[in-house]
Design brief:
180 residues, two-stranded parallel sheet, alpha+beta, Arc Repressor Mutant, subunit A, 39% helix, globular
């Protein structure tokens, strides 16, 4: 299935079962495999580096949660081969509760740590002081940039991950003139 045929909708995670499904790093990586094109359990296992049985288990959990679905089947030597794809182009997580780690950031850090150390990376952190309007504008611009490049994505090219977090850190009392 070409990437143009993938669903254009967002999947909103609303149940505990769905949240558990997306919170697992292995399942996160399986969803990354299915992001642009459908794949069989065997293909998923090869790409993620898992045994077929483990891949099958994780895909079943994702399917039960509604995050992936069978998009095509074919007979191969008397066995029905199923091709799985994401149920939607993007997944929207609920607002996290106080003290809960951000699932996406944990996965992004794990993926970054697992990436080849000799590969090209662009990792930066900037501390900014912005008005509420500037903060909202920067968030919208980052989202628009990510959306623009998602539309340019070519499934025949290697994966690249873009992760950003724009947030106000926990407030700390500052001394006069902004110095601590």
């Amino acid at each position: 299935m070409p990437s143009d045929d993938l669903p254009g909708t967002s999947f909103h995670v609303t149940t505990d079962e769905q949240l558990r499904a997306v919170s697992n790093l292995t399942r996160h990586r399986i969803m990354a495999v299915l992001r642009f094109e459908p794949a069989t359990i065997t293909q998923i296992a090869e790409r993620v580096g898992l045994a077929k049985g483990s891949s099958s288990y994780h895909v079943r959990l994702l399917e039960r949660a509604g995050l992936v679905k069978v998009v095509r089947t074919r007979k191969v030597r008397g066995v029905t081969e199923r091709y799985y794809a994401m149920s939607a182009r993007s997944i929207v997580l609920p607002d996290r509760g106080t003290g809960e780690p951000d699932v996406l950031m944990r996965h992004a850090v794990a993926d970054l740590e697992a990436a080849p150390v000799d590969g090209e990376r662009h990792v930066r952190m900037a501390h900014l002081r912005l008005t509420d309007e500037q903060f909202a504008e920067l968030g919208a611009r980052l989202q628009a940039l990510a959306d623009e490049y998602r539309e340019l994505s070519d499934p025949s090219l290697p994966d690249a991950s873009l992760v950003f977090a724009l947030f106000h850190p926990a407030w700390r009392e500052q001394g006069e003139g902004g110095a601590e």
